[in-house]
Here is the input.
Amino acid sequence: MTPSEYIKKVPKAELHLHIEGSFEPELMFEIAQRNKIEIPYESIEELKKAYQFGNLQDFLDIYYAGANVLIHEQDFYDLTMDYFKQCAKENVVHAEIMFDPQTHTKRGVEFSTVINGIQRAREEAEKQFGISSLLIMSYLRHLSEDDAFETLQQSLPYKHLIKAVGLDSSEKGNPPSKFQKVFEESIKEGYIPVAHAGEEGPAEYIYEALDLLKIVRIDHGNNGLSDPKLVERLVEEKIGLTVCPLSNTALRNVDQINNHPLKKMLDLGLKVTVNSDDPAYFGGYITENYLSCIDALDLSLKNVKQLVRNSFEYSFLSDKKKEEFIAKI
Ligand code: HPA
Ligand SMILES: [Zn+2]
Here is the structure.
């Protein structure tokens, strides 16, 4: 079997997916219409043409604007259900989904509206497709730590539905150290800590995420490669890295897919996984991310099997569940 044939069929897990980043233009237009919200594009085609990004901030501006049309519980259900339908098509059997409450609460949408819509879709996906999932509540790092504390408070009635906390949005100038206290408190509440680090920011931010936020998995982490001592530590401490190849090229953190460091990271013994990040904006869901790398980096079947295995190994599933899934790959 070729690596491409294998990846299309094998059951896999996705560990880095922003639900707001899976908002396809078709659904965005539909929801905008039913909520009577104007979007500044004439058509789906015109909107898609705007998806040209020079950096992370260019993307975030469009991503937050797109999320503006999400108002009702049903909107969050539809958004999440669309993602699960795609998972079912691609044989993604487990998904660890990030959501950004502040993107919505800042606009006056209740925390409960967001999480109830997402939760209903999770239950439906489990029932309809047998897909397992968990939630990572991500704090927006361009906002203040006090703001993140408020979000932590709002989440507490729903603690049983949320597995982990994350840190996303504009990385440069918003180091992990800014959120040390809220992560400490989040851990006390029982949330597992993860953070975006080393996507655009320096290796120093990865050290901060490890040492100050006590994170157990890093989202992206590419820029850690600039520091051999850090690489050694990440390997030794078995820190999972949720790498997102098509995101990296779309946001110009990597100039072209042929130069993506995924293979190098694997060869160094880093615990890398492949993920889609914001698939509606970056040109492909998880299978497409794998296929691009298989093609451009000439990944072997052994490489791809390792990546799929890592996607379960570095998930937040119980050891028993991990074993059950890994037995099927
Ligand atoms: O790729 C990303 N990076 C940082 N923050 C984000 N929020 C959504 N997607 C991203
Ligand atoms: Zn991300």
The radius of gyration is 18 Å. Residues 18, 21, 56, 63, 168-169, 196, 199, 247, 277-278 surround hypoxanthine (ligand 1) (CB under 6 Å). Strands lie at 12-18, 92-99, 132-140, 164-168, 192-197, 217-220, 240-243, 271-274. The longest helix spans residues 111-129.
